[in-house]
Amino acid sequence: MYVSIWEFQVAPDVEDRFRHEYGPDGGWVALFRRAPGYLSTRLLCDRVDPLRFLTVDIWESEEAHDAFRRECAVAFAELDDACKALTLRELPVGRFTTLDGATPIF
Fold this sequence. Notes:
The chain has 106 residues and is α+β, with helices and mostly antiparallel strands. The chain has four helices and four strands, in the order E-H-H-E-E-H-H-E.
């Protein structure tokens, strides 16, 4: 399993739109679902700072993720541009691999 985690600081007054775009029925998941090897995404909200979120994207492999990024680069860039106004900051937390081969609990 391959997991990509991103942190977002959401702009005030657009939290509902952010939750939609990055949640299970939003544009990002719809785009990821077009790719072989995509498994799921979880959207996490910080309990202390309600405008801080993490996305946890789970893929079968790093190769599947990288192939998606190559093959869907234009659509990815377009959606990323459309969502820029929703966040004040977007940071990659990291790219992870499960060590035991098990599916992450997310």
